[in-house]
Amino acid sequence: MNNRKYIRTNRQITSPEVRLIDEDAKQIGVLSISEAFEMARSTGLDLVEIAPMAKPPVVKLIEFSKFKYQKAKKAKTEKKGIKGGDTKELQLSPFIGARDYDTRVKRAKEFLSTGNKVKISIKFQGRQMQHPEFGNQLLDKFKKDIQEVGIIDTPPKMMGKRLMASFRPVKNLKLKNNGKTE
Question: In what residue span(s) does the Translation initiation factor 3 C-terminal domain sit (predicted)?
């Protein structure tokens, strides 16, 4: 199936009545298709179907090339507005060494300060499963250590042998030096 949406213009619009909007997005009213087409021809513009499923369908008086340009520009700005914000995963064990823990905290802060989400995965092995409180304590400590750059997004949850939680960046974080905070 073709994902491109077909836009009907001028004589391709088959509805007997249409709701007409001018170039400045001011509503002219509900007119017959012949009246709307005559108005478009007298102004030298095209009738472009904006909302075909509405009752009656909404058409706009605009040059078709200008309409396509505006639509492409709007799609581009919407695409730009969606932040890449990947999710980075850091794996820890409940009995992680102090230096390794510091490294994971440092990496999490880097990821969060550049706008990425961070997923923490604490993996339990063997008899460690009998003491999930160690994982919860580690996660609480982790949460406290990164609180200036990130807040919890999804609460801690056991999934099999892993304790998972995710963090998202704090909104008012000021980025400095290409994403690095000072």
Answer: 87-169
